[in-house]
Each structure stands twice: as structure tokens, then as C-alpha cells.
């Protein structure tokens, strides 16, 4: 039964790819999005072997109030994302190749400011800042990546973290707000504890 089931899955994915490949900005071979809640494929660039599991929202925002936007969402080769991703983009969100994202993660380049107390927050103009997540990263469950954040290559973001500022290459960050507590030292080829700014702690 298992070979038949696997064959059916492959056939379903291939048919989905044939149907949707012209709707995406790009849809690389062997890429598949399982049962999304909402996607805007014309603003999504998928490399090869991208897998996004069920109940995701991947939405490009083209207009908010009286302002127009040109969103680009890039999922590079071999990106894997577990269920319940919430991704909203008005300008640019890039997720680098081989990056794995666990379930219930939020990524957005949109901030809803609260400038005028006489206007509901959702009706005030939004602020937009690009987001990038580098190559070979791991983003654990329930993490939130906020506007303007640039995460380097080979970075781990711990579960339940809220990332409010940049994280450089080869770091482990966790917390709300997320702070760097470990970093790989290229010179010594060892992991070392760090201050929250990423500088190594010296004894």
C-alpha cells in the first residue's frame, strides 16, 4: 500500500505544480504548497524543492489605505516550512536556501503604528521594512520575525523568540526580544558564549 500511496502523492504534487507554475512569479521543480489558507502566487518566487506545509498564509499586500506596494516574496531552493506559517509582505521578504522553519512562525515586513489615538490601529498607514533570512538557518516553533530584521547565514532562532533586530552569521539567538547568546568563532573553530550584541565573552 505504501508504494501506491507515495505514487499518488507524487502524482498529486506534479499536477498541482503543472496547474500553478504559471501563476507564480517562479515555481521551481519539485516545489509544493500544501492546502494553504491564503496565498498570492503572483508575488511569490519559489526555487527548487521548496516545501510549505498546510494552513499557511503567504500574502503579498499591494494596497493599504491609499498607498500602493509592490511585494516580492522569495523562497530560495530547498526551503522547508512546517504548518501554520503567517507571512505578510508589502515590499520584500527573502528566505535563503536550505533554511528550515518550524510550525506557527510569523514573518512580516509590515508594522502597524499607533500614531493617532483617534483612528483605529488597523486603519492607520502601515510602515514597511525589508526582511531577510539567510542560508542554512533554523527557525523554531512560534518564532516571530519583525520588520527590518536581517538574519545572517547558519543562524538558529529559538522557539517562542521575537526577533526585533539583526542577527549576524553563525549565531544562536533566543528570547523576547531575541538576544544572541552563542556564536561560532571562525578563528578558534569553536562555539563561544557571547554578550547580547554578539561580541564574545572573555574571561
Summarize the structure.
By secondary structure, this protein is mostly beta strands. The protein is built from one helix and 25 strands. The model has no long low-confidence stretch (mean pLDDT 92).
Give structural notes:
By secondary structure, the protein is mostly beta strands. The protein has a single domain (2-193), classed as Hexapeptide repeat proteins (UDP N-Acetylglucosamine Acyltransferase, domain 1, 3 Solenoid), CATH 2.160.10. Helix content is 9%, strand content 35%. It contains one helix and 25 strands. It has one helix at 2-20, and strands at residues 26-27, 32-33, 38-39, 44-46, 51-52, 57-60, 63-64, 67-68, 72-75, 80-81, 86-89, 92-95, 100-101, 106-108, 110-111, 127-128, 131-133, 138-139, 144-145, 150-151, 156-157, 162-163, 171-175, 178-185, 190-193. The strands form five sheets. A nine-stranded mixed β-sheet has the order 2-5-10-13-18-21-23-24-25. A six-stranded parallel β-sheet has the order 1-4-9-12-17-20, with no helix packed on it. The longest helix has 19 residues, at 2-20. 30% of the residues are buried. The mean pLDDT is 92.
